[in-house]
Design brief:
The chain is mainly beta. It has a single domain, classed as Neuraminidase. It is built from two helices and 19 strands. A hairpin with a 4-residue loop joins β14 and β15. Keywords: Secreted. This is L-dopachrome tautomerase-related protein.
């Protein structure tokens, strides 16, 4: 989820089924929750396999297709960035549009912008200058999308960075990330034994990593 402290709102990814993925918009003041962008091109998975270590990842006996999952918000609380896990694109939409209850579903979808290319991944965060850090499942890596909207691998390790999932900004301590080899678990490829080595990682971002992203 992404917390918008300027507008007292929280934006949450609702992965759901592959055709019904959506975002949730929570008004902290009233408790009202709205479900938006259901089944949008920006929230449902692309029809492409996720391949890690040369093997296609499966879920419940068929190729994995996972909808919107990673999400973050910039430090100005102006843009929300998000993507399906099974996607090679990252999208963004203004908080003003997400909060505008007068917009129809189609009108809101028209405000969504394809921001940049990426590899399939399970987490994103952003620094003070607008550089996006993304989980790169296909390359066992952490990638970065700089403000010129170009993607590159920042750190890569076939063991330590196997299925990077979540990020946490820690200000002067940089960014923390978790790695869990989830694709080797019974929930996905029914492999045994379940991986039992998990990692908490720390790296230095290109700019200050403001808390709460």
């Amino acid at each position: 989820m992404a917390v918008d402290r300027k507008h007292n709102a929280i934006y949450i990814t609702d992965t759901a089924a592959d055709t019904t993925s959506a975002l949730l918009v929570l008004d902290i003041n009233t408790g009202l929750v709205r479900r938006v962008l259901e089944g949008s091109f920006a929230t449902i998975p692309e029809d492409k396999p996720l391949v890690i270590d040369g093997k296609t990842v499966n879920m419940q006996g068929k190729e994995a297709r996972v909808g919107v999952n990673p999400i973050t918000i910039d430090v100005e609380n102006k843009w929300v960035y998000f993507a399906p896990m099974s996607s090679r694109s990252i999208y963004r939409v203004r908080t003003a549009d997400l909060l505008n209850t007068d917009l129809s579903a189609k009108a809101l979808e028209k405000q969504v912008e394809r921001y940049a290319a990426k590899n399939m991944g399970d987490g994103i965060t952003i620094d003070k200058e607008g550089n996006l850090y993304v989980s790169d499942l296909e390359n066992n890596a952490i990638g970065v999308i700089t403000t010129d909207r170009k993607y590159s691998v920042l750190h890569q390790d076939n063991n330590i960075l196997s299925w990077v999932e979540g990020f946490a900004n820690a200000g002067p301590e940089g960014i923390y990330a978790t790695s869990n080899k989830l694709h080797r678990s019974p929930a996905f490829n029914n492999e045994s034994p379940t991986p039992n080595k998990f990692y908490i990682l720390q790296f230095t971002p290109k700019a200050f990593a403001s808390f709460g992203r």
